């Protein structure tokens, strides 16, 4: 649809003059639900974004691509070991307005001035920006699509990204704002150029595409953003399976208990995943640990295959160095692993505790899934708190501010469980709180946190959001714009 057509439809709906175009009604309700107040607030947002797009890029056909962030209720650092995760898509998202170009250039702008406008040419080898550069996630999506579908299938695009509050995802907070940006960009380009996407295969595709930015993670963030459904938690088995010759994923959705809500407590201590050496060091430690465990459990390929009661303390050292490991792992293979994960060979490594966390966390996810299905929220909360203890102790992925936030959250009478959200080392805490007491939780936790840290926390209550979608896609978006 043209910019002016979107604005006309949106404004008529906003002022109760006319209903939205049937296509837009269906797409908005599918993405945001049926509550009229929610739909109207989103329409206001889309009107503003359409107007900004028009002022920067001129009149053209456009579509909107949205991808929510996620919070992991259970399952920290299990995804890249083909383990289990239990997440929830947020009702906060990255939204991109996108229009075609008639060249091979991607023009990328952001509603927030702190993210500088950038341009790049499409190709199979797109040079990345500096580590942490926000455009790298769009470049990752574009390069992966060109490599997968060929340079003739995709041409240029004008993209306008909106991640502003209150609907946007706080950056560098462990809520997958970066992965959501990648998903939204990939979905926008695919929609503009009519590339069909199987949702589960698309999740795998996006997970691998993000390797472009330097991290060697899994696809949990992307699967959560793409496959989640409103009002439910999302269970993912991260071991891909073959189904009729195609690679797919095993997933499940579990209704959340309505008497409880999810509170996200942002410590406002940030750590960019792409710029963090800790993330890659942990991945290397677990990979090396798995190689040492394999002779004891020959059928195991990943840490998810190691039984929770296996005597790994007898098989793994507490600490190791590159030189120590050469006695057990072929030196050339060992050197490749350190290079692959970009870890210095002088680094001391902790194999036992890192592997113990991943193995036990997989068991916690399965237990938590069972408790949610049973509606036993008290037991689920205890599993969340056990997950935090493991992340803090065995995985050493906490920090002072996260520890303070969790202590404060757990002191509140209506809290049943709390843990670190995301990769750790900063960012957010996720807490499960009695819905009737959630507003008081926000007030008390924020007050006590600033008293103890001199940092203002952002605490918001979340509803489970809908997975990524396209708004406005129809045959009219096939024409080009300059």
Q: List the total number of helices.
A: 15
- CATH architecture descriptor of the largest domain: 2-Layer Sandwich
Distance N terminus to C terminus?
16 Å
Q: How is the main sheet built?
A: 8 strands, mixed
Helix and strand string, N-terminal first? HHHEEEEHEHHHEEEHHHHHHHEEHEE
| Count of β-strands | 12
**Structural class from helices and strands?**
alpha+beta
CATH domain topology of the largest domain: Ribosomal Protein S5, domain 2
pLDDT average, as an integer? Answer: 92
What's the gyration radius in Å?
A: 23 Å
The poorly predicted ranges are 475-482
Strand content: 15-25%
Shape by Cα distribution: globular
Helix content: 40-55%
CATH class category name of the largest domain: Alpha Beta
Number of domains: 2
Task: Please provide a brief summary of the model.
Keywords: ATP-binding, Carbohydrate metabolism, Galactose metabolism, Kinase, Nucleotide-binding, Transferase. The chain is of the alpha+beta class. Helix content is 41%, strand content 20%.
Descriptive account of the structure:
The structure is a single chain. The chain is of the alpha+beta class. It has 2 domains: 3-73 and 92-255 and 468-478, Ribosomal Protein S5, domain 2 (2-Layer Sandwich), CATH 3.30.230; 263-462, Alpha-Beta Plaits, CATH 3.30.70.890. It contains 15 helices and 12 strands. The strands form 2 sheets. Strands 1, 2, 3, 4, 5, 6, 7 and 12 form an 8-stranded mixed sheet that branches. It has a 4-stranded antiparallel sheet with strand order 9-10-8-11. Helix 8 packs across helix 12 and helix 12 runs antiparallel to helix 13 (377-393). The longest helix is centred in the last third of the chain and has 24 residues, at 351-374. The protein is globular.
């Amino acid at each position: 649809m043209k910019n002016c057509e979107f604005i006309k439809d949106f404004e008529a709906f906003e002022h109760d003059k006319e209903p939205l175009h049937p296509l837009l009604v269906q797409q908005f309700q599918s993405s945001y639900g049926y509550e009229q107040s929610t739909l109207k607030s989103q329409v206001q947002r889309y009107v503003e974004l359409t107007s900004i797009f028009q002022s920067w890029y001129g009149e053209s056909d456009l579509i909107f691509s949205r991808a929510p962030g996620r919070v992991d209720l259970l399952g920290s650092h299990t995804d890249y070991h083909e383990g289990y995760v239990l997440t929830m898509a947020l009702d906060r998202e990255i939204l991109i307005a996108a229009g075609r170009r008639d060249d091979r250039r991607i023009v990328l702008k952001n509603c927030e001035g702190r993210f500088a406008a950038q341009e790049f040419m499409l190709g199979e080898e797109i040079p990345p920006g500096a580590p942490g550069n926000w455009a790298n996630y769009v470049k990752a999506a574009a390069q992966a699509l060109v490599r997968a579908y060929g340079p003739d299938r995709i041409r240029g695009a004008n993209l306008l990204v909106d991640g502003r509050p209150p609907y946007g995802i706080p950056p560098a907070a462990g809520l997958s704002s970066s992965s959501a940006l990648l998903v939204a960009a990939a979905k926008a380009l695919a929609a503009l150029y009519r590339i069909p996407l199987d949702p589960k295969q698309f999740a795998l595709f996006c997970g691998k595409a993000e390797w472009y930015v330097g991290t060697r993670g899994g696809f949990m963030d992307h699967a959560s953003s793409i496959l989640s459904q409103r009002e439910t938690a999302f269970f993912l088995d991260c071991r891909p399976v073959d189904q009729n010759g195609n690679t797919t994923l095993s997933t499940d959705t579990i209704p959340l208990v309505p008497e409880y809500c999810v509170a996200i407590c942002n410590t406002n201590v940030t750590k960019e995943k792409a710029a963090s050496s800790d993330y890659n060091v942990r991945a290397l430690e677990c990979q090396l640990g798995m190689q040492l465990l394999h002779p004891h459990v020959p059928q195991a390929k990943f840490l998810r295959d190691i039984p929770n009661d296996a005597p790994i303390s007898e098989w793994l050292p507490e600490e190791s160095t590159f030189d120590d490991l050469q006695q057990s792992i072929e030196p050339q293979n060992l050197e490749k692993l350190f290079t692959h994960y970009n870890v210095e060979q002088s680094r001391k490594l902790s194999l036992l505790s890192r592997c113990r966390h991943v193995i036990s966390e997989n068991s916690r996810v399965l237990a938590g899934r069972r408790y949610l299905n049973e509606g036993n929220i008290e037991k689920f909360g205890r599993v969340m708190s056990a997950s935090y203890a493991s992340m803090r102790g065995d995985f050493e992925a906490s920090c002072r501010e996260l520890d303070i936030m969790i202590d404060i959250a757990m002191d509140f009478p209506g809290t049943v469980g709390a843990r670190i959200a995301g990769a750790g080392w900063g960012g957010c805490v996720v807490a499960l709180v009695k819905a009737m007491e959630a507003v008081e939780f926000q007030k008390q936790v924020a007050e006590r946190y600033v008293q103890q840290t001199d940092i203002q926390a952002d605490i918001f209550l979340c509803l489970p959001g809908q997975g990524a979608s396209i708004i406005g896609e129809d045959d009219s978006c096939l024409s080009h714009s300059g």
